[in-house]
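S.,

Sequence below, as promised.
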Amino acid sequence: MKASILGDLLRNIVERGRALAGLAPVAAKSDARQLSRQCETLLSSLGEASGVALAERILDEWDGLDEAGRLDFLLDLAQRFGPDPDRVERAQTAYGQEPNQETLLGLHKASEPRRQELIRRLNLAPGGVARLVAMRESLFRHLRHHPQLEYLNQDFQHLFTSWFNRGFLILERIDWNTPASILERIIRYEAVHAIDDWDDLRQRLEPADRRCFAFFHPQLPGDPLIFVEVALTGDMPAAIGEVLDGERESLDPKRATTAVFYSISNCQDGLRGISFGNFLIKQVVEELRLELPKLTQFVTLSPVPGFAGWIADEAAKGRLGQSDEAFLAGIAENKWQDNPDRQTEMRRILLTLAARYFIHARTATGRIIDPVARFHLSNGAKLERLNFPGDPSPKGIAQSYGLMVNYLYKLDEIEANHEAFATRNEVAASPEIMRLARAGGPAKAK
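The prediction came back faster than expected:
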């Protein structure tokens, strides 16, 4: 009701502003240069109503651009809407002559790219937040081939970090009674374990021992930002089949001791780089503890998306034992799944390599290689257990030879683990994984 009233009020402001500014209907074919000129006008001293109307006009015309036109417009924003060089020089000179809080503030204001104020004003248009998120999605499609767009990307990220601050997010439980429009998005956005159909979704939401929670933003109603799927169990699972088995017997939640976070999916590509997952997990843990006080263990069952690629790279550099390399080379034939002896040998090789991967492998800048590991370890989780075969699906085999991982969120160790990882890049891991890592050691080229 309130949203509807505010929407009507904003619509009235836009209509009055359109009349005051003398804006004609949107042209059938939009032009990137004309759009840039309108952006210059928007940054001038327009009144509030006419400014909102022009912001909506710009976004409407952006919608009408083809992909080439959108690229031209984004490049123009990146190249022509930066800080005013003359204003920066004057502010820098003033601060050099009299360094104080006032001149420092002037330098700060002068150095802010004009793009940021433009984005703020575009955000005033009806549906501005959603449309700007979509604009950044378009930017990502061109960023690789046009690195100068990174300037604009950083402005979006700076502003979105504030607009999507945890204080603005709303946690909601998703269940089988949630509106179908949202459930459709859950099916579409699931990024870890694909949801095949409505029956599959029902198996994840309706049973008493299943939970799903999502973060929403007031300006994106009905469209989740991120969601997590949770299984309530009696123990830590070692394979995704245990969780997704449609024939399993449902557990009374009051008897559950373990909450398993088995899928976390970001929903808005335009919000890439804006962190929601750490807040989501911690708040869901609190929600579950209030609902089910007997829960004593909070773990994940996580994929290892970079593991197979890392093994291939290690093999190319001659860092695998010859017998291990030959064995793994035959995995493509997929004959191990029905062969207990081969599966045992594969487990021995993979668990040793996985311990090396998590404990010793680093990027050129010293970061943990695996993105899922970075996420959970930076949140204060502990690398608790390596599971093989955890995910024998084609996707699981392709990305990690079927390996999955349990990260343990032990509540009284989270802060210490986070501090060790953030300041010293130390991985909190179980004794068994550390033993395997010592046995494997950091490999050297042969």
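DSSP finds 20 helices and eight strands in the chain.

Coffee later?
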